[in-house]
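Priority: medium. Attachment 1 of 2:
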């Protein structure tokens, strides 16, 4: 089953495991497409060592044009 299917089926733990093999930028791209509550729930299931990098990748780049 694909990532979106896992989320639709409510299988958050398996969906989080599916993200572990992706880069931080790919994880951020998947999370960015979710509703805020879904994003928070899935983010909380990621290992803490990935939080900072994924959170940083979710933030817009404010240095462009400087």
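Attachment 2 of 2:
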């Amino acid at each position: 089953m694909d990532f979106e299917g896992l989320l639709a089926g409510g299988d958050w733990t398996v969906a989080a495991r599916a993200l572990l093999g992706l880069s931080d930028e790919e994880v951020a791209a998947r999370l960015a497409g979710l509703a805020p509550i879904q994003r928070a729930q899935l983010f909380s299931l990621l290992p803490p060592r990935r939080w900072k990098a994924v959170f940083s990748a979710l933030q817009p780049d404010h240095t462009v044009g400087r």
